[in-house]
Specification:
Length: 123
């Protein structure tokens, strides 16, 4: 009988410890906050989304209203083209969104860059 009670107690402790959630005393149940110190390559407004090419064209140095009237052929301000690296946009990015874009490291070209990260700042 004692062996049965001891075995039951050990099995219960094993099951309960496997079902518990691991919380870090420093962050609690939430993930740690990520601090990004590197600046984006460009901050600007999307003037065109090319879903089939998975590319966005961004114009910096303009207001949202100017960006909404712009197209990719305008050369008055800085125009940048960024391609996605195996990520589909699926309608999440639209003309007029203000975005910050980081590029993948070690790219020599100044246009047609592959984006590492795109953050929507304003819709």
């Amino acid at each position: 009988m004692r062996n049965y009670l001891l075995l039951t107690l050990i099995a219960s402790i094993f099951v309960l410890s496997g079902c518990s959630t691991n919380t870090n005393s420093e962050t609690g149940p939430f993930p740690a906050t990520e601090i990004i110190t590197e600046e984006p390559v460009v901050i600007g407004y999307i003037i065109e989304v090319l879903e089939e090419d998975q590319a966005i064209i961004i114009k910096s140095g303009v207001t949202k209203e100017e960006a909404m009237k712009s197209n990719k052929n305008d050369t008055e301000y800085d125009v940048h083209t960024f391609f996605s690296n195996a990520t589909t946009f699926d309608g999440e990015l639209e003309k007029g969104y203000k975005v910050a874009v980081w590029q993948l490291e070690n790219q020599e070209a100044k246009d047609n860059l592959i984006s590492e990260k795109i953050v929507v700042l304003e819709k």
